[in-house]
Amino acid sequence: MDEELLLTRIITGIEGGGEDDESHYHDLVTDLKSLLDTDDDEILNRFYGSLSSVASSFLRCVSAAMDSPVESGRLAILASDAYLSLLLSTNCPVFTFFSPIAFLSLLGSIRRYLKRRNRDDSAAQGSNSQREKGNKKKRGRGKRNLGYEDDGGETEEGGFDAKLLFRVLDRLGSVLSFVHLDRFPDSLKSLVQTVSEIPLSALEHSGFLNYDRLMDMCGKILGGVLSSDHGDMAITAAEISKSLTPLLLMGKHQARSFALGFVSRKLMGLAKDNSELKKVVSNLPKFFVHKSPEKAEPRGFAVEAILEIVKAMEVEDQSDFVDFLMKMCQGKSNYRILAVDLIPLLISSLANPLGVIGSEDGSKDSWGLSCLDALLKRCSDTNALIRARALSNLAQVVGFLSGDARSRSILKHALGFNGETSEGKGVVTDLLKKRCVDEKAAVRRAALLLVTKLTSLMGGCFDGSILKTMGTSCSDPLISIRKAAISALSEAFRICTDEIVTTEWLHSVPRMIMDNETSIQEECENVFHELVLERILRAGNVLSPDSASLPNNGNTTSKNLDGDIEALFPEGVLVLLRELCNSEVSPWVTKICGSLGKKKRLKPRVAFALQSIIKESESLWLSRSMPINKWTAPAGAWFLLSESEGLDEQGEEQGVECNSSTWAGDRVCLLQTISNVSLQLPAEPAADLADNLLKKIEKFNLHSAEVDAHVKALKTLCKKKACASEESDMLVKKWVEQLLSKASKVTEKYIEGVSSNNHSFVTPATLGSRRSKRLDSVSKKLSKVVTAVYTIGSCVIIYPSADTTKIVPLLHTVITSGNSDSKLKNKLPQGDVCLKQKAPPLYSQSWLTMAKMCLADGKLAKRYIPLFAQELEKSDCAALRNNLVVAMTDFCVHYTAMIECYIPKITKRLRDPCEVVRRQTFILLSRLLQRDYVKWRGVLFLRFLLSLVDESEKIRRLADFLFGSILKVKAPLLAYNSFVEAIYVLNDCHAHTGHNNPDSKQSKTKDQAFSVRGNDERARSKRMQIYITLLKQMAPEHLLATFAKLCAEILAAASDGMLNIEDVTGQAVLQDAFQILACKEIRLSVSRGASSETVEMEEEGGDSNAAAAKGRAITQAVRKGLIQNTIPIFIELKRLLESKNSPLTGSLMDCLRVLLKDYKNEIEEMLVADKQLQKELIYDMQKHEAAKARSMANQGVACGTSRGNGEPEEPATSENVRDSGLESRVVAAAADAVAAKAARSVLKEINGGAATPPLSAMSVPKLRSSRGGIQSGRPSADVLESLRRRPTFMSDDES
C-alpha cells in the first residue's frame, strides 16, 4: 500500500542521513507532506512511533531542508510547511518534534522566501523547476501530492507563491497557541523580529498577494505572543516595539501604517489592564525620541509616530511625557528640535491644553503654558534651525489657540500682552526685534510669520519698533523674506487703521513696485488695490447725500471741524490720503496707478469715491458757514484722482466740476486730472479751456509746479480741438512758439535791465515807501523771468523741434555770467554782469532749462556738457548741484558715449556735503547701473562703498539694499574682484610699489574724499563694516580665494618689502588684513560654513548631503591653503615686524591665534617639516597670551586698588576675555599679581613703613673666587653665559 511505502521511504531517508544532497531533502519533504495528508490515523500513529526513535535525526534533516538556499527559498518554505503540518497533526507528540533550532530554521526560511530576487535567481529557479517536474514524473506523482493544487492563481513569474506563504503563517500562528516560547527567549525574539520584517519585505510582492490579509496575519502572530504563556508580557512588548521602530520611522506606506496601528491600538489596549505593560507603553514615546533620526523628513515621521502613541495614552501618562518633553528642551540639539516640533502638535491634538475646561480663567499650572514657555525660550536658541522651527511652530500655536475666546485671553497673558495696558508690548516684543534681523534667513522668515499671526491676535496693535522692523525687512536681500515682510505688514494694515500702521505700510510696501522680482511687483499692486483703493471705494460708498448735515454748533473751530471731517470718513481714509501725497510715497503711488491703469484694474468707481469725498468735505465746510476761499480738499484726494485713468465719460465730467480748490498742490493735481480726462470733453468747452490756460501761462506768474500741468493739459486739449494729428501738431507748434517768443522777450528785457543798472551811476538808496516799492518791483520781475525761463524748458520738453536759436544766447549769457575767465567776459555782450550773484534763482533755473534744451538737441548737448560738468564740480549751491546731477544722469541715457568720461565727476557727488545731493546721486547712479547705461568699472564701485557708512541712515539703507540684493544678483563676482583694491583705496594707501606712478600725488588728492583714513577706532570700525558687507556677498569658494589673495597680495607684499609698513597708511592696510582674516565672516563661512548651509538647505527641504560634501571639500581646501601658503607668510612677516619693533606684532599674533584655534589638532601636521619652528610658534603664541593676561590682570588689580573701600576685586570673566583658553591665564596672572602686592605690603609693615634697601646697600660677606681673589660685584662671563643659555618655559597652567 502507498502509505506503507511512504512510511518506509521517510524512515529510510532519515536513517540514511542525506549526504547533503538537495534532491534527497526535496524527496523527504515531499514524502512527509504526502503522508501527513492521509486520513488513516493508524498509519500516522505508527509513523509517530517509528519517528520518535529517530527524532534527533529527523529534526536535523528537517532543519537542513528549511535552511536550504536553492530554488529561491521554495524548498525551505515547503519544508517549513511540512514541519508545521506535522506539529498540527492529530495525536502528534509536539514536545518530541519541537526544537528551538528547527524553529529558528523555520523563521529563516520565511525571511529568505521574501527576499528580493534578481534575474539570475529567476533563471536558476526556472531550471530547478524543470528538474523538479522531471523527478515528479519519474516518481509518478503530480502536484496533487504536494498539497498546493490551487496555488497557480497567485504565483509570481519568479516563483513566489502567495498562498503557500499565507498557509505557513496561518499554521505558525496555530502552533504558537499550544507551543509556548517562555522557555525559549531566543526563539521568541527571533519570531518577533521576523514577523516585524515581513510587512517591509513583502512590499516587493504586493502585486501578487493580499497585503491587508498579510498584515492581519502578522498582527495576530504578534498579538498572540503578547500573553503570559510566552513569558513576561512587558519584555515581549518591549521587544516588539524595538522591532517595529524601523517601520515607524519610515516614509508613509502600508508597512508603517501596520506598525503604527498595532502599537497605538493593540499595545495600548492591553496596557490598560496590565500595570507592568503600562510602564513599557508609557516609556515607548521616550524610546522613539532617542531613536529618531536627525534629518528633517525622517524626523517628521518620528514626530507623527510619537504623537499617535501619545494620543492613545491615558491623561496621566500624557502629562508624564510632557514633563519629559520639557527636559528635552534643555538637552542636546537633536532633542531640542524634536521637542520644538512636538509641542505644536501636542497642543493642537490633545484636549484642554490651557486648562480652560472646568475653569473660567484656565489653570496656571496647565501643561500647555509650560509648552508655550519652552517654545518661547527655544526662539532664542543658539542653533539657527531650532530658532527658526520654534518661531514657526509658535506661530502655528498662536493661530490655533486664537480661535477660542477663552484660549485667546490666556494666550495674551502668557505672551505678556496684558490687556489694554500692554499697548502692543509683551514678552515677544524684544524677541521679535532680534529675530526679525537675525543673521539666518530661515529665522527672519519664521519671525515674520509669527508677527502675522500675532497681528490677528492683537488686532494690529503693535509696538512701533516692530512695525519699523517689518518695514526694514521689506528691503531684505532674499526674495522670500521680502514677500513675508509684505504679507506681515499688510496683515497689520488690514486689521488696524491706526496712523502709525498706515504710515509704516505706505513708506515700506508701495516702494516694492520697483523690485526686480516680478512676483513682488504683482503682490505690491494687489495689496495696494485691496488696502488703499478698495478702502477709499468703501468710504465713498458709505457717504450719503445727507451725511454732511451734522449738528451745527455756534462756536465752530478749525479743530472741531477737522474732528467732524475725520468722523465723517471711516477706516482712517483721511490719514491714508494725506500720507499718499507724501514726497517719499507719491512716486511709488504714481507707478502703481500707472501699472494698474495699463492692466485695466483702475475702475471709475474709485474716481467717483474720491469725488464724493471732496464734495462731502466742501459741503461740511459750507454747512458751518466757513468762507469758501479758505477751504481745501482733504490732502491727497486730488493727487490720487489725478493719477486715476481709464475713467468713463460720466466720471470725467464730474471730475471737471470739482474745481473750487485754491491750494497750489491741489491745482496741480486738478490740472493733471483735466489732462487725463480732456479727450472726452466736448470740442467747444475744450477750446475755451485751452484759451484760458494759454492766457494764464503767458502771464508768467504761475508756480513752477503748475507750469508743467498747464502745458500738459494745453497739449492734450489741442488734440481734442484738432481733427487730425497733423493739425494738432500745428496747433501745439503755434502756441509753443508764441510762448517761447514772449518768454525770450521777458528774459532779454530783464538781462538788459540788470546790465543797465550795473553801468548806471549808483545813488544812495532812498528811504521809506519808495525803497520798499522798488524792492517789490525787482522781486516781481525776478519771479516773472524765472517762471518765463522755466516755461521755456517745459515747452521744449512738450515740443522738442521748437526753434530756440534766439533763446540759447540768452541762457548762455546767464549761465556763463559767473565765469571768472576775463577773455570770455569780453566776448559776451553782458559779460561783466554777474547774474549768479545778482539773481541766483534765474542762474539756477537757466541751467535747468539749458539741460532740457540739450536733451532735445544733440548738437547743443555736445557743446554744453563740459560746462555742466564744470559747474557741477564748482557750484556752491546744493539745489543747483542736485539739479545738475539729475541733468547729467539724463544725458547719460541719451548721450551715453559723450557722458562716459564725466562719470567720475558725477560720482564725486556721493561725498557731497548735502545729504539730499548724496542720496539723489546714489539713487540715480544705481538706476543707471541696473539699466547698464553705466558699468561697474574703474573707481565707480570703490566710490559706492562709502555709502555703506554714510552719516545718513536713509543712504545706508539704500546702500545695503543695493549691495545685498541688486548687486549680488547682477554682478556676483564684483565684490571678490575688487576686495583687495578696496582695502588700499579705503586707507588711501599709496605705499605699495604697484600704486606708485607719476600722478600719485594727484590721484592721492582725488581719492582722499573716498577713503576712511586713520587708525582710530571709528575709522577702523567703518572700514570693517564695509569689508563685512562685501564678504557676505561672496560664495564660499570666493571667500576661500579672497583669503588666499589677502595673504598673497598684502601679507606677502609686506614681508617682501613691496608694502611699506613704516608708512601710516601701509600699517593701516596690514592691520585691516589681519582683522579681515580673523573675522568670522571669512573664517567661519569657509571652515565651518558647511553646517550653516546645511541648516538652511534642510529648512528649505534641499539635499543636505550635497551641502555637507561641499563643506568638507571647502574645509580641506582651506587646510591645504593654510599649510602651503598662510603659515610661512605669517612666520616671515612676524620676524620682520619683530625686527622693526612694530606695534602690528600684536595684531598678527591675535590673527594667527584665531586662525590656528580651528586647527589646533593639525598644527603638528602643518609644520611637520620643521619641529623647532612649530615649538617656537606655539611658545610665542602662549607668551603673547600670557602677556595679554597679565596686562588684563594688572588692570583688574589697579581697579581693585583704586576702590579703596574694602570691596574685593572683580575677577576677569569670560565676557571681557576673548576666549575661554585665556580665562585661566588671566585668573592665574591675577592671583600672582595679588600675591606680589600682598608680599610688598607685608615687607613694608615689617620695615616700619620703610622700603626694603637694595642689595648693594646691605652689609654682606664677600666671597673669594676659585682663583683665590676677592670676587667683584660683576659676575664672571661664564656664569652669565650659562644663565643666558638656560631656557625658560611657561608653567603648566599657561600651556
UniProtKB/TrEMBL annotation:
Biased composition (Basic residues): 134-144
Matching SUPFAM superfamilies: ARM repeat (SSF48371)
Disordered as annotated region, ranges: 119-156, 995-1014, 1190-1220, 1245-1295
Residue span(s) of domain Condensin complex subunit 1 C-terminal: 880-1000
Keywords (A to Z) from UniProt: Cell cycle, Cell division, Coiled coil, DNA condensation, Mitosis, Nucleus
Annotated InterPro entries: ARM-like (IPR011989), ARM-type_fold (IPR016024), CND1/NCAPD3 (IPR026971), Cnd1_C (IPR032682), NCAPD3 (IPR012371)
Major localization class: nucleus
Localization of this protein: Nucleus
Coiled coil: 1149-1176
Residue ranges of the TM segments: none
Domain of life: Eukaryota
Quaternary assembly: Component of the condensin-2 complex.
Protein name: Condensin-2 complex subunit
Native organism: Camelina sativa (False flax)
